[in-house]
Amino acid sequence: MGRRDIDYQEVHIGHAMPIALVDCNNFYVSCERVFDPKLEGRPVVVLSNNDGCAVARSGEVKALGVKMAEPWFKMEKLAKQHGIIALSSNYTLYGDMSARVMSILSTFSPKQEVYSIDECFLDLSGFDPQSLVAYGQTIRKTIKQHVGIPVCVGIAGTKTLAKLANHCAKKRYAGKDGVCDFGRYSATQISKLFATIPVGDIWGVGRKISEKLIGMNIETVEDLRTANSSRMRQQFSIVLERTIKELNGISCIELDEADTPRQQIMVSRSFGQEVSNFDDLSESIAYFANSAAEKLRKDESVASGVCVFIQTNPFKGKSPQYHRSVVIPMGEPTGDTVKLVNVAIHGLTAIYRGGFSYKKSGVLLMGLQPKEAIQTSLFDDFAKQDKSNKLMSVMDSINRRMGKGSMTIAASGTKQRWAMRRDSKSPNYTTDWNELPTAT
DNA sequence: ATGCTCCTGCGAA
DNA sequence: CTAACGTTCGCAGGAGCAT
User: Fold this and answer.
1) How far apart are CA A153 and CA A20, in angstroms?
2) Distance between CA atoms of residues A379 and A219, nearest Å
3) Distance A166 CA to C13 C1' (A)
C-alpha cells in the first residue's frame, strides 16, 4: 500500500532557503524590440539557423498557437494571415544583451548561477521573507530601466519550485506583475494551484516523461508532487525522484556558481541544400573543425579526441537514410587547428559513403582538459609545439581584430555549397510579412 | 564484484 | 511551382569490456 516517505503536512514550500529564478521574457524577441521599437505590440518570431524553426515567440505569436521549435513552413500560412514578422537570429546581439542582464542581476545576490543565456538563479537566503516580492519588483524594474528587457521572477525554496514559480508569474496563474513567491501561499493554496498546472510544465519533465506519466494518470504538478518518489525512481530515474522531492520543498539540486570549462565542444549545422560528394562534405567538416578549435582555445582547453558525423535528412522518410559517426583519438591532446582539421577529414574518409544526399554534418571535440594540465611526451618536439602555439595565437588575434573568418584554413573551401540557406527569402520577407506580394 | 569507457536517450534553452 | 524541420550542452544509465 502506497507508503509515502514524505509527510506533506510538514512541508513549507518556499520558506527555508529562498531561491529566485529570473527569466527574460521572450528573450530574443525582446532583444530585437529594444533596437526596433516598431516591433512592440506586433506578432514577432525569431527563427533558428537556416530559417528552420521558431526559437522565440512574442506574446502575440504564442496567442496564435505557434509552438516552440515549430518549423517555419508549418506556420507560414498563419504568419501571412496575421502579419507575423519573422527575424533571423542575431546571436552576437543576444549574447551581449545577456551579459548586461547577468551583470546587473549579480548585484542582487552574493550567489548567482547563470543557468542559460536568458535566466539565472539567485540565492536570497537571509533576506526578509516578507519583502521578497517587493525585491523581485525592484529586480524587474532595474533590468527594464537599464537594459530594456522585461523579466519575470519566481521565488521558492528549491530550484525546481523557483522555476515553477517563475512559470506561474509568466502565465499569471499566481502572483502579480511578473513576480511569484510561493512563500506567500498556504499549503492548501499551493495544492490547488498545482492541481491546475500540467505535469509537463515542470522543469525536468519533457515530452517523453510527461507522456508516460499521463498514461499513469499523473497529469498535474500536484499529482506528481504527491506521488511515491521512491517508486517513481524505480519506474523512471533518480532524476524524477529528485524532482518530486524538490516539488515538496526538499532541496536536492544545489546552486552551482562554478564556471567550469566545457567537457565537449560541438559544431554542427544543417546544410542549406543537400550535398552528395565527398569534397563538399569535406569542406563542411574542415570548416566546423576550425570553428570548434577556435572555441577550444578560447576556453584554454585541449582536446584528446575528435568525433565526426554525417547524416542524411531524417525528415525525408522515402530517401535512403544513412548516418554514421567515428571517434578518432588524438595521439596527444591538442588545440591546433591544423591537426584537428586533418584528423577530422581523415575520420570523414572512414565513414563517407557515396550515393546518399547528406543534410547535416558535425564535429565534436571530446576529452577536453585544461591546456596547462597536459603532459607533454618525452618524444615531443618542443620547438615544433611552440611553433604551433604561436601560429594559433596569430590566427586567433587576426580573427579577433579583422573579424571572424578572416583567416582560416584552405580546406574549408570557397564554394561552400553546403552553407546555411538564407537566400530562400529576400530580406523584406524576413523583416515584414506585410511587404510580401499577396498570392494570386 | 567493481570500475572503466562508450553509447544512447532525454531534457533544457 | 514545390518543398521546406535548430544547436549545443550535461546527466543518467545500460552495455560491454577489463581487472
Assistant:
1) 6
2) 62
3) 31
